[in-house]
Amino acid sequence: MGFNNFLRSLFGSKADRDYRAIKPVLDKTLKKYDEIDKLSNDELRAHSAALREHMREVEKPFEDRRMEIRAQLNEDISIDQKEALVTELDKLVKDEDDAIEKALNEILPEAFSIMKSTARRLNDGDVVVKASEFDKELSISHDFVSIEGDKAVWHKSWVAGGNKITWDMVHYDVQLIGGIALHQGRIAEMSTGEGKTLVATLPVFLNALAGKGVHIVTVNDYLSKRDSEWMGPLYQFHGLSVDCIDKHEPNSDARRNAYNCDITFGTNNEFGFDYLRDNMAVSSEDLVQRKHHYAIVDEVDSVLIDDARTPLIISGPTAKTESDDQFLEYRPYVERLYQAQRSLVNQILNEAKKKIAEGDEQEGGKLLFRAHKGLPKYQPLIKYLSEPGMKVILQKTENYYIQDNEREMPVITDPLYFVINEQLNSVDMTDKGNDVLAKSVGDENFFIIPDVGSKIAAMEQAGLSPEEKRHQKDALMEDFSLKSERIHTVNQLLKAYTQFEKDVDYIIVDGKIKIVDEQTGRVMEGRRWSDGLHQAVEAKENVKVEAATQTFATITLQNYFRMYHKLSGMTGTAETEAGEFWSIYKLDVMVIPTNRPIIRDDQDDLIYKTKKAKFTAVIERIMQLRDAGRPVLVGTTDVETSELLSRMLRMRGIKHNVLNAKEHAREAEIVGQAGQSSSVTIATNMAGRGTDIKLSPEVIKAGGLAIVGTERHDSRRVDRQLRGRAGRQGDPGSSVFFISLEDDLMRLFGSERIASVVDRLGMKENETLESSMLSGAIERAQKKVEENNFGIRKRLLEYDDVMNYQREAIYSRRRNAISGDKVEIDLRNMMMDSISLLVERTQGLDFEAFEENLMASLSIDCGFDADFYKDAKSDELVKSLVAHMQESYQRRMDALVEKLAPIIKTVYEKQGSMYKNIAIPISDGRKTMTLSVDLEKAYNSAGREVGKTLSKNIILYQIDEHWKQHLREMDDLKQSVQSASYEQKDPIVVYKLESYNLFADMLESLNRDVLTFLLRAFVPLRDASEAGPPNRAQRRAPQLNARREDLSTNAEQRSNTPAKAEKKIGRNDPCPCGSGKKYKHCHGKGQV
C-alpha cells in the first residue's frame, strides 16, 4: 500500500471529506422539501416572494446608507469629507456582500426546495396559478405561459434552442449536492449526463433572490441561448427576470436590460468584451454591465484553462509600418534557409542510418539526435524512429547531451542552421544560420545585436561632449531596436515554416489565414496569432500580409473572472486540473457522486508501431461495432485526422457523420443522431460539449455507445471528456484508445520504457500491444504535457498581471470620471503627484529657476516668495503648492461659471423645453473641445455643473489618448524583451521593470496634460449665440481615433443557431394578457 493510499484509508478521500462537510446542509434541504412540496402552486410562489422580500430587508440598510452618501457627494462639501464618504462607500459594498452571503446560507434549504418542487410540478403537467402582471407580460412574447381568465397556465412544453422540449426532469439528491458546492464557490465535477444544467438552477435561483445579478457563462452562443430558453421558465415562474446577452447587439439598450435582469446568460467572450467596451464608454448611459457579483461557468475547464491562453482584444486599424513589410522582405531568405535545413537533415539522417547499420550506435545516435533537433516533424525521420530500437538510441543520446545543463549540446546543434524545441514551441537560430542569412543580404553584422551596456560604458569613458554622447546613444538604441525587430521577424517566419501546417493549424479562405482550434476543430473567426506570428504565416502562404492593428482594450479571461465577488463552475473533467484551478482562481474542485453507478467498460490502450497500422485497426473495430448494432463515436485530436478517417470510411462504403469546423452549425443535429443504432460519428474530442448523446432501448440492449479514440490527447481531461460520452446515467458502453508510436504525444513525451518494451518484444507493424502498465506510462506522458502547458499559462498570466494592475488603476479613474463622484478627489491626487515629482526633481535649483520650471510644466506661479522657498522643507513646498494649485483651479472654474451663467439662464428660460443639453466650447489656447452639459442641471446649479462636466470630459479624453499610446508601447515592449534571453536575463523580469517605468511616465504625462488644460481653460465666446443645443456628434468628447465600425474583437463567429419563432399577434387580435382589449390598445400600444 502506497503512502497516499495509507492516508486515504485513515482519513478518507477528498471527495469523502467534502461530502461529509456538505451532508448537514443536504439533510436540512431534504427535510424542508417535504414541507415545501405540500404547498399549493400559489402558496409556493408566495413563499419565494417572501424570500425575495427577506433579502430586500437584509440589503435595505446598506442601500439606504449608499443613497445618503451619494446625495452628500453632490453637495458642496470639502474634498476631505468626500474622500471619507467614498471610503465608506467602498466598505459598504463588501459589508453588504458578507451580509447577503450569510442570509443566503440561511435560506438555502427553502430556496433549493422551491426550485425542486417547481421542477416536479412541471414534470407532472401544466401548472395553473393566479395570474400576475409579470405572467401577463410574459404571455405576450413567450409560449410557455398563457392567460385564461384570471389564471396563468404554465405549460409543460415550450420551444428552446429552436426545438420543442417537454419538461421531464426533477432534481436527484446528488444534484442537490452539486448545487450546494456551486453556491459555496466551488467547481462541481459531474459526469456527462448527470444534468449539470439542471443542477445550476438551484444556486442560480438562490443567488438571484438577492437581486445583484447572476451570470451563467457558456462556451458558445448556441448553449447560452438554448439554456436561457430551456431553464428560464423555472425562474420566471417565481417572478425573476431572465435574458441572454448573445441575443442582443453590443452597446444596445437591449443588452443593458439583459444585464439588469436577475439572471443573465451569455458566452465567456461576450461577458469579457462587454467589460472592455464599458471601459471605452464616455458616459454612464453607454455602460451595460453592473457589479460582477456571482458567475457560474459551464464547461469551466474549457473557459478558464483552454481559452485562458488567448486574451480578449478590442483593436482598431493603425498605420502600416516598415515592420509589416519585413515579413515579405525576409520570406525568400527564410524559405531558402528552411530548404537548406531539410537537405541537411536528410543528409544527416542517411549518415545516421549508415552508422547504425554498421554497428556504430554512438556516432549514429549523435547524428540521429542532430536530425531530430533540426526537423522533429520530418516524416522520413518519424518513420525511421518507429523501427525497433531506434527510439531507444535517440533517447539515450538525448539523455547524455541534456545532462549538466546541456553543456555538450553545441556539439549537436552547431552544424545546424536553426534548432527546434517542440516541447517549448520555440525555434532558435544558430551562428551558422545567422551567418548564412547575413551573407544572403550582404551585411555580416545584419543580425548581430550590439552589447548596449559595454557600448554605453565606452562612451562614458571616451570624453565625448554631451551632444555627441546623446547622438551616439540614440544611434546605438536605434541599431539595437532595428536588429531586435529583424531577429524577431526571422524567428516568427521560421516558426511559420517549421511548426504550423496548412489544413491542420490553419486554413486559407478567400485569401485569408483562418486559425483552426486544436481542441474542437472549429474555425476561430476573427482571431489572429500575436507577436507577428499571424503575419509570418500570411507571408509564408503568399497571401496579403494584413497591417498590424492597434490594441485599444485587452484582458485575459483569467483576470476577467477573478473580478467576481463569487465564482463557481461545473464540468465533467476538472479533477486533473485541480491544482491549476486553486493556484490561479482559488477554486476548489469537488467531485459529485453519480446518480447511478458507471458501468462503462474502459479498456486498456491498443498500441501500434505506425499510424498506418493504427488506422487500419480503427476501421476494422468500427465495422465490428457497427455490425453489432452499436453506435460508434470516433474521437480525433485534430481536423486533419477526422478528414482522413472520413475518406477511409467512404472507401469502405460506411455511412457516417463528421463533426468539425465545417459542420459546426449542425452540431446539435449530428450529436442527436450519434446515439442511433449502427451510426458512426467522427468528432474532435471536445466537439459537442454541452449536448448529450441519448440512446434508445435497442442500443442499450446491444451494449450502448462505443467510444473509439484515435489518439491520446495532450490533456487527460480531454480523453476523459471523450470517454464520458458513453455510460451516462448508468447506461452500458465502452471506450478504447488506439495509439501509435508515431503520434505527437508519444514522439514528444513517450517514455523510454515504452520504446524498450516494443523493441524487446520484437513487435511487427500490424501487431498490437495492450497493457495496463503501458496505459499508465501514457498517462504519465500526458502529465508532463499538462505541467508544461500549465507553465505556459502561468507565464502568460504573469505578463497579464502586470497589465492588470495598470488596467485596474486606469479603469478605476475612468469609472470615477464617468460617475463624477470622485472627480475632485482624483484631481487633488493628480495635483499632489505632479507637484511631488516636480519638487523632487528640482531640488537644488534657485527660486527663479524653480518658478520657471513650475510655470513651464503646470502653468501656475509659485504663490510664495523666495524667502519661503529658501527655508521650506520639501513636504512644506508640496503642501503649499497643492493648496495654491487648488485655488488657481477654483478661480478658473469660477471665471467660467461667471461668463456662462447668463448664457445658460437665457437659453434655459427661452428654449429649455426644447433642449436637454447645451453645447459649450472650451479651449486652453491650443485646442478646443465642445462640452455637452445638462441644461437643467447647469441652470439649477448656477453654472457650476459646467466645471464638473469639463473636469470629467478632459480626464476621460486624456486617459484614453494616453492609455491607447501606452498599450502600443506595452505591445512593443512584450515583443522586444524576448531578446533579453540572449543576455542571460529573464524576459518577464525585464518586462516588469520596464513596464513599471512606462506606466509611471504615462501617469506623469497624463496628470500634467489634464491639469494644464484645466488651469488654462477659458470660454472662447463673444456672445450667447455661440452656445447652443449640441448635435449628436458633439455629445461625445473625442475618444479614439477610430470609428466604432472600425473596431474589431478577436471573438469567435456566432453559430448559426435556429431562430426561436416569437409569438406573432395581429394588431386587432385580443391581447394574450386576458384583459379583453385589442392588442393595439393593450400591450401592443405604441408597437404596432
Task: Provide the descriptors you would attach to this structure in a database record.
single chain, 1088 residues, alpha/beta, 8-stranded mixed beta sheet, 7-stranded parallel beta sheet, 37 helices, 55% helix
Number of helices: 37
Q: If you average the pLDDT, what whole number results?
A: 83
Rounded Rg: 34 Å
Main β sheet profile? 8 strands, mixed
The coarse overall form would be: flat
Number of strands: 30
Structural class per helix/strand content? alpha/beta
Compute the separation of the termini in Å: 76 Å
> What share of the residues lie within helices?
40-55%
Strand-residue fraction?
5-15%
Unreliable sequence segments: 1031-1046, 1055-1062
Walk me through the structure.
This protein is an alpha/beta fold and 1088 residues long. 55% of the residues lie in helices and 12% in strands. The longest helix is centred in the C-terminal third of the chain and has 48 residues, at 772-819.
In short:
39% of the residues are buried. The protein is 55% helix and 12% strand. It is built from 37 helices and 30 strands.
Write the layout of secondary structure elements.
Layout: H1 3-11, H2 14-36, H3 41-73, H4 79-124, E1 127-130, H5 133-141, E2 145-148, E3 151-154, E4 157-160, E5 163-166, H6 173-183, E6 187-189, H7 196-208, E7 214-218, H8 221-236, E8 242-244, H9 253-259, E9 263-267, H10 268-278, E10 294-298, H11 300-306, E11 312-317, H12 322-357, H13 361-374, H14 379-385, H15 390-406, H16 409-413, E12 418-421, E13 426-429, H17 431-441, H18 452-461, H19 466-499, E14 506-509, E15 512-516, E16 523-524, H20 533-540, E17 549-555, H21 557-561, E18 566-571, H22 578-585, E19 589-591, E20 601-602, E21 606-608, H23 611-627, E22 632-636, H24 639-651, E23 657-659, H25 667-673, E24 680-684, H26 697-702, E25 705-709, H27 716-723, E26 733-740, H28 744-749, H29 752-760, E27 769-770, H30 772-819, H31 823-841, H32 847-858, H33 866-871, H34 874-911, E28 917-923, E29 928-934, H35 935-940, H36 944-976, H37 987-1016, E30 1048-1049
Parallel strand pairs: 6-18, 6-19, 7-9, 7-10, 8-9, 10-18, 20-26, 21-26, 22-24, 22-25, 23-24, 25-26
Antiparallel strand pairs: 1-3, 2-3, 4-5, 11-17, 11-30, 12-13, 14-15, 15-16, 21-27, 28-29
Helix pairs in contact: 2-4, 2-6, 3-4, 4-7, 6-7, 7-8, 12-13, 12-19, 12-20, 13-15, 18-19, 19-20, 30-36, 30-37, 31-34, 31-37, 36-37
